[in-house]
Design a protein that fits this description.
433 residues, alpha+beta, Pdz3 Domain, 3 domains, 5-stranded antiparallel sheet, 21 strands
Length: 433
């Protein structure tokens, strides 16, 4: 038996150990708090000195907003501080309509760069190309300008104009493009029947209504005799995560994992298909992707690939595997903050890597004078998040055509060939049963 003295001694030791951990934890917390206090003290000193000694009077609001922008701009390229006006615009944009010129932009080598113009918009019609470096917006230099500030400057009322000073690889000097703003109504779904009853649907962006619009388009094509599907996600920059899940539900049975996200502390949130099995869950299907397929597009392509539901055709996708949360602030402004990374059903992170197609087909043109643009991917953007699963490779200099006429679209033709081959093998399989 253990003596009463030993029990008392053990109890005292346990209390001392617990007390040590409590004291140690308190000490660490105190050190962290002290460090934070010293940093904030320095910040308030600088703020006070500027207010007191700067050559011109500066408003507190401007100083604070500038400081917040500096904080957020030090994070990844998809995080940002949004003024009340910009925050309101962003929420409007997810509904598929806003005033502007219609381009996607990023920071490459410290320079504001066009990722891609949006089809059928003023920028697209004016001749703005992917890879173009934007040196000025009107007379304002874009040096050290954040993406969100640039977007705010390019947004505006229909009928107003702005001038972009552009430098393009191969140019000897800069060129100015004057573009008239319009209401950018992004029609998220375009569809038609190709020969042999192949249904073709192009998804241009993932908005609140995209899944419903896609369902209507598929239903209409089915009435015309559609018996197979080509889903074109090329140059689709993504959009809402929930929209990506809803779109995927149209092509997978219920209770299938579409994507899961993990935050800083490793907490995991899974997104499954929930709707009853649709009429399109078994149709032969090909998904077209390219270097402009990003975010929500990669979620859809990744899920369909992991579940062996569709054949992916094209080239490596953009590689944006992070989730941004829109957080409203008390003054009407907002924070667009990267809060998680997303993973395909098999647990693959595509951050900085992208989705690799099952069949790689580079877009080609029969025109001798056709010009290619420099390809920009997530890994080319400054301060992008690293992929914890795969060591990052140095980015090769890569060029590509942005688009060609349908008759010359060899990626689409390969997709059609895959569908036809699928049908042939299906007949052979049935004959052998």
């Amino acid at each position: 038996m253990i003596s009463k003295k030993r029990l008392i001694a053990a109890g005292i030791s346990a209390v001392l150990i617990v007390s040590f951990f409590v004291v140690a934890r308190w000490a660490v917390t105190t050190v962290n708090a002290q460090s934070n206090y010293e940093d904030l003290k320095t910040f308030t000193e600088v703020l006070s000195l500027i207010k007191k000694n700067y050559v011109e009077e500066v408003k507190n609001k401007d100083l604070i907003q500038g400081a917040i922008k500096g904080l957020v701009n030090n994070l990844d390229p998809h995080s940002g501080y949004l003024t009340p006006e910009a925050f309101k615009e962003l929420r409007v944009e997810t509904k598929g309509e806003f005033g502007g010129i219609g381009i996607q932009i990023g920071i490459k080598d410290g320079i504001l760069t066009v990722i891609a113009p949006i089809e059928d918009t003023p920028a697209y019609k004016a001749g703005i190309k992917a890879g173009d470096k934007i040196l000025k917006i009107n007379n304002d230099s874009t040096k050290n300008m954040s993406i969100h500030d640039a977007v705010a400057k390019m947004r505006g009322a229909k009928g107003t104009s702005l001038t972009l000073t552009i430098f393009r690889e191969g140019m000897k000097e800069t060129k100015e493009y004057t573009i008239v703003r319009d209401i950018i109504k992004i029609k998220s779904v375009k569809s038609k029947i190709l020969h042999d009853n192949i249904g073709y649907v192009k998804l241009t962006q993932f908005q609140e209504t995209s899944a419903n619009d896609l369902k209507k388009a598929l239903d209409s094509l089915k009435k015309e005799g559609m018996n197979s599907i080509i889903l074109d996600l090329r140059n689709d920059p993504g959009g809402l995560l929930t929209s990506a899940v809803s779109v995927t539900e149209l092509f997978l049975p219920p209770k299938k994992l579409v994507v899961y996200i993990k935050g800083r502390k490793g907490e995991k949130t899974e997104y499954f298909t929930e709707l009853p099995k649709s009429d399109y869950a078994d149709m032969p299907m090909v998904v077209l992707v390219n270097q402009g397929s990003a975010s929500a597009s990669e979620i859809v392509a990744g899920a369909l690939k992991d579940w062996n539901r569709a054949v992916i055709v094209g080239v490596q996708t953009f590689g944006k595997g992070s989730v941004q949360s829109l957080i409203p602030l008390s003054d009407g402004s907002g924070l667009r903050l990267t809060t998680a990374k997303y993973y395909t059903p098999k647990g693959t992170s595509i951050q900085g890597v992208g989705i690799t197609p099952d069949i790689i087909v580079k877009l080609e043109s029969k025109e001798k004078d056709s010009k290619e643009h420099k390809v920009i991917r997530e890994k080319d953007l400054e301060k992008h998040l690293k992929n914890e699963q795969i060591p990052e490779e140095k980015s090769d200099k890569e060029t590509a055509l942005f688009e060609v006429d349908e008759k010359d679209d060899n990626q689409l033709q390969r997709a059609i060939d895959v569908i036809k081959t699928w049908r042939v093998f299906s007949k052979i399989e049935k004959a052998n049963q």
